[in-house]
Structures are given as C-alpha cells and as structure tokens.
Automatic annotation (TrEMBL):
Gene Ontology molecular functions: alcohol dehydrogenase (NAD+) activity; metal ion binding
Protein name (Swiss-Prot/TrEMBL): Alcohol dehydrogenase IV
Cited Pfam families: ADH_Fe_C, Fe-ADH
Record keyword Lipid metabolism present: no
CDD domains: MAR-like
Domain Alcohol dehydrogenase iron-type/glycerol dehydrogenase GldA, residue spans: 24-176
C-alpha cells in the first residue's frame, strides 16, 4: 500500500453552528454551568424535558430541578418522552411548554429527549412564529444528539421522520460525567458504539473538512480505549468524562453548506430503530461493522484512505492493501462490540426476513447498485449472539 495520500480535499468551507453559545464539561459542572448558560441566553424559566425512566428511577432530574429552583428559574418538568421520540410525546411537550410559561427547554437524558426537544422547538415555531425557542442539553448517554441540527422522531404511522433547521441545535451543552453514573450499562456502552458510528461515517460523509475528520480519529481512538475501561469499572468518572468528550469529537458541531447525511449505517439504523423498536445504540452495534466491510468493495479510493487511516491511528499495522485495511477496521469494530457484551442479532428483535429488501431499499434511497449486497449483509445479522 502506498504511503502517499491521493486526497483531493484541498478546497472547502467551515463554520460553527448558528446556535451554540457555550459548552461546559467536567465532573460536577452542572451546578455552575447551568446558571451561567441561563444568564448567557437571558432565560428566566425552564421546562425540563426528559424520559420517564430517568425521572422515576434516578435522582438525576431532581438534581437539575434543584439547581433551577435555587435560581428561581424552574417552570415544570415534562417526562413523557419515549424511545425514538414518538410524535405524541412531542405534541404533549409543546403544550406543556406553553402552559408552564417557560422560555427555554433544559433537556436531560439521551438522544430521545434531546431530539424531542428540538422537535418541540420546531413545532412551537411553526405554530407561534417569532424567534426559535432555545435548548440547553444535558446528555446522560453518548448518542451525541446534542450536536446536530436535525431532530429524528417517530410519526403517527410508526415511521422514522425528521425536521431540520440550523436553529434547532442546542444553544448550550453540559457534559457532566457525574450525571451519567445512573445510566444503565448497556445503554451507556451501546450509545458509545453509536458515537463510534458517527466518527467512522463522518470519515466518508460529504462536505466535511479534513480537520473534523482528524477529530474523528481522536474520537475513534478514545472510544476504543475508554469504552472497555468504563465497562471494567462503571464508576470510573475519568473514563466517562473522556467518553463524553469523544462523543463530542465524533459529531463536532458544524454548519455545512449543503445537506450531508452521515451514511449507510445510520440510514439502516433509522429504518430498523423506529419500525422494530431497536435502540439506536444497538442498531449501530448491528450495522456499523458490516457497512465498513462493504465500503472496502464500493467506496471511493479517497474514502478508503480515510478509513484505513483509522486503522493506523489505532496502532494496527497495514495489511498491505487499502481494501484489506478497511476490512481489518471492520473486524476491529466487530471485536469491540463483542468485547463490550453488545453483540446482538436481527432475529433477537424479531425483524422478519421478508422485510430486508424494503429496509435496504429505504435506507439506500434508490441506490440499486448495492441493494443486493446490503440485503446479503443484513441476512448475516440473523445468527444468534
């Protein structure tokens, strides 16, 4: 394999997102960061948006409520956000926002409450007009929803859909590893694979500038290093904080000139998640490794180079060929999923085999040239773990 890169990415554009005013990180940072962000944003009353499990089974939401009450900035808490952000919860959340007298949302939890809050803001803007309402996100998983401008949710027909605007991304983010201690292990680790999915697919995502891809290399290295450490010792705050920063690097906030979807693994995950009730972390556990393996056959030379570079960043020697290096990276991802105890299968989630062609078709958006290859690797995901 030649050591000389053939990358043609010598022209481009980069800008920060429209909305982000500040990101604070560090164990225990919420108590000081939340009041600072509220001051920066000129917010007076906050609606806390979260999921029922986090609200009922942990004290995480109570801690956030307490900080808001101490500041006399607490309006109410809405905790009816389900997995994959059903539209019914979003509608109810928008009504709760209006009734509470809040002027900002503080979301607490994983990708579902953060995306649901973006959708609530979108529909409030559609209904009420004026400036977009704003959100401060306090994530407790590694799904990285807080860095994107899109909001995925499940519509009335059970299909995954989305809204998008540059003004939907959170205006403030707090990465506080102490608030992640109550996150169930499999949720924490599987969303770490989701972050890995972001980082890997950003390596071949259109319109992404090279410096962001180098950040993704850093994310990949830290996710491979600290996810096993976090499994070894779930109370290791240092590892958890490093993982939160790695998730940040995996989907660095960026304002792109053109729409740029992440890639096939994510597209498949959206189709599998909403329709069959598979958590997004576990869709990445299923689809990322085989997607990377497929890239060895169908990707451009430039995309293969970026993927092969990840192998070298992980300290693994080249196999001697570009295609071989991409396949080897796929094997390392597969091995990490297995070592974390996250190996799963489509039959475990009762995905009918007869649905595979339509799943592939919808994920590919009409790219018929690789349809049969995608169906084939989905077939391979039926063997029991």
């Amino acid at each position: 394999m030649s050591g000389q890169s053939t990358s043609t990415e010598l022209n481009g554009f980069y800008a920060w997102t429209h909305t982000l005013e500040g990101l604070y990180y560090g164990p225990g940072s919420t108590s000081t960061a939340l009041p600072k962000l509220l001051d920066t944003l000129g917010a007076s009353k906050a609606l806390v948006v979260t999921g029922n499990s986090l609200y009922q089974k942990t004290d995480v939401v109570k801690k956030v409520e307490g900080i808001l009450r101490d500041q006399n900035r607490y309006a109410a808490t809405f905790h009816d956000i389900g997995e994959h952000s059903p539209i019914s919860g979003i509608r109810a959340g928008a009504e709760a926002f209006k009734k509470s007298g809040a002027d900002i949302i503080v979301s607490v939890g994983g990708g579902s409450p953060i995306d649901a809050s973006k959708a609530i803001i979108y529909f409030l803007h559609e209904e009420l007009g004026g400036e977009f309402r704003r959100q401060i996100a306090i994530p407790t998983t590694l799904s990285a929803a807080e860095y994107s401008i899109g909001a995925g949710y499940t519509d009335d027909a059970g299909e995954k859909t989305a809204v998008s605007s540059p003004y939907l991304a959170p205006a403030g983010i707090i990465l506080d590893a102490e608030l992640t201690l109550a996150t169930p292990e499999r949720l924490w680790l599987s969303t770490g694979i989701r972050a890995l999915d972001h980082a890997v697919e950003t390596l071949y995502r259109p319109f992404v500038v090279p410096p962001l891809k180098l950040l993704c290399y850093g994310a990949i290295v830290d996710l491979f290093k600290y996810l096993p450490k976090s499994r070894e010792d779930p109370n290791d705050i240092h590892a958890r904080q490093k993982l939160q920063v790695a998730a940040w690097m995996s989907l660095w906030p960026v304002r792109l000139e053109k729409y740029s979807p992440l890639g096939l693994s994510h597209a498949l995950g959206h189709r599998l998640g909403a329709t069959y009730g598979i958590p997004h972390g576990f869709t990445s556990c299923l689809t990322l490794a085989p997607t990377v393996k497929l890239k060895a056959k169908v990707a451009s030379e430039e995309d293969k180079e970026w993927l092969a570079g990840a192998l070298r960043q992980l300290g693994h020697p080249s196999t001697g060929s570009l295609d071989g290096d991409v396949v080897e990276l796929s094997e390392l991802i597969k091995g990490l999923v297995g070592n974390l105890g996250l190996k799963t299968s489509l039959d475990q989630y009762k995905v009918p085999r007869k649905d595979l062609p339509i799943i592939a078709e919808r994920a590919l958006g009409g790219r018929d040239e690789i349809h049969s290859a995608v169906v084939s690797f989905l077939e391979e995901l039926y063997s029991s773990p």
